[in-house]
């Protein structure tokens, strides 16, 4: 199976998923009141490191919102799995589920099969993080092939604060071709 490398500065694909609140979620579209979006792709309820990471994100949601950046998370879990996982999360941000293999490939994510039926019952995305700017373009991207390598959240927040400051005139990086 091949996977594309997502291009920094490219338009974020239009991916619509169901949300746990019953409303559809367009992953790349910020909620009203924000003009940027932080999209976190996590492995699923079977991953304790994902649970910890999403709970750490929650501690900084207000700080991201102050920068005009809302947060959404998504996985390939079923509705039942996502609902069960939500009971272990402090997350106030929207949680989407049913990310398809095609969606994962569109985002250039690594995809894994479960090690056993005890882990989960479907292929799942390894962690990915995307920051979508006010033009609908990918400002930052971080993709990992395992749950152990993810951006440190306070560093991410600090960097986004720098990027969002108009005095810094900070461009999208990694666009050399």
TrEMBL record:
Residues 6-162 form the Thioredoxin domain. CDD domains: PRX_like2 (cd02970). GO terms for molecular function: antioxidant activity; oxidoreductase activity. It holds the Pfam family AhpC-TSA. PROSITE patterns: THIOREDOXIN_2. Gene3D superfamilies: Glutaredoxin. InterPro entries: AhpC/TSA, Thioredoxin-like_sf, Thioredoxin_domain. This is Alkyl hydroperoxide reductase/ Thiol specific antioxidant/ Mal allergen. It comes from Shewanella pealeana (strain ATCC 700345 / ANG-SQ1). The lineage of its organism: Bacteria, Pseudomonadati, Pseudomonadota, Gammaproteobacteria, Alteromonadales.
């Amino acid at each position: 199976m091949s996977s594309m490398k997502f291009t920094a500065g490219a338009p974020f694909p239009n991916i619509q998923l169901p949300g746990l609140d019953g409303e559809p979620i367009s992953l790349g579209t910020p909620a009203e009141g924000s003009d940027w979006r932080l999209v976190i792709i996590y492995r699923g309820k079977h991953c304790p490191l994902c649970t910890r990471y999403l709970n750490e994100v929650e501690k900084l949601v207000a700080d991201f919102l102050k920068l005009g950046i809302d947060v959404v998370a998504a996985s390939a879990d079923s509705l039942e799995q996502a609902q069960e996982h939500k009971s272990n999360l402090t997350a106030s941000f929207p949680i989407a589920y049913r990310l398809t293999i095609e969606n994962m490939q569109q985002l250039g994510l690594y995809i894994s099969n479960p090690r056993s039926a005890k882990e989960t019952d479907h292929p799942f995305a390894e962690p990915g993080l995307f920051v979508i700017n006010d033009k609908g373009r990918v400002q930052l991207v971080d993709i990992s092939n395992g749950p152990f390598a993810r951006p440190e959240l306070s560093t991410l927040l600090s960097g986004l604060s720098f990027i969002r400051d108009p005095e810094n005139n900070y461009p999208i990086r990694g666009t050399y071709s």
